């Protein structure tokens, strides 16, 4: 069976490519597992691979968002600055 998928972003391309690799890896694990061990072998392959896929997707989504923000720029916000330490205004110096 052959299908064509079109990724509309680098994130979609990553997820599509990695999902296909994961599917092939799981099928291979199932095919090579001895009788009575198929579920355990497929789960053992799936969990870390799916976790890695999720990590990569999150990383790319965050990098893409950060790059867009840097390119567009955030509006400047007013920042209050302290001119003196709190509690010291108008207080005479201590003497002994």
Ranges with pLDDT <50 over ≥5 residues? none
List the secondary-structure elements in sequence, H or E: HH
Taking the sheet with the most strands, its summary is: none
Query: Cα-atom Rg, whole angstroms?
Result: 28 Å
Task: Classify the helix fraction into a percent range.
Answer: 55-70%
Strand content: under 5%
| Helix-and-strand structural type | mainly alpha
Overall pLDDT confidence = 87
What does this 3D model show about the protein?
With 96 residues, the chain is mainly α. It has a domain at 10-72. Helix content is 60%, strand content 0%. The protein is built from 2 helices and no strands. It has helices at residues 10-32, 38-72. Helix 1 packs antiparallel against helix 2. It is elongated. The termini are far apart. The model has no long low-confidence stretch (mean pLDDT 87).
Structure summary:
The protein has 96 residues and is mainly alpha-helical.
What are its keywords?
60% helix
Q: What's the helix and strand layout?
A:
Blueprint: H1 10-32, H2 38-72
């Amino acid at each position: 069976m052959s299908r064509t998928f079109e990724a509309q972003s680098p994130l979609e391309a990553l997820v599509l490519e990695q999902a296909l690799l994961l599917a092939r890896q799981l099928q291979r694990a199932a095919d090579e597992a001895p009788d009575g061990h198929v579920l355990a072998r497929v789960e053992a392959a799936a969990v870390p691979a799916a976790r890695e896929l999720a990590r990569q997707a999150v990383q790319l989504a965050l990098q893409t968002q950060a790059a867009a923000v840097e390119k567009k720029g955030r509006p400047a916000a007013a920042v209050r600055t302290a001119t003196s330490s709190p509690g010291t205004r108008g207080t005479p110096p201590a003497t002994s």
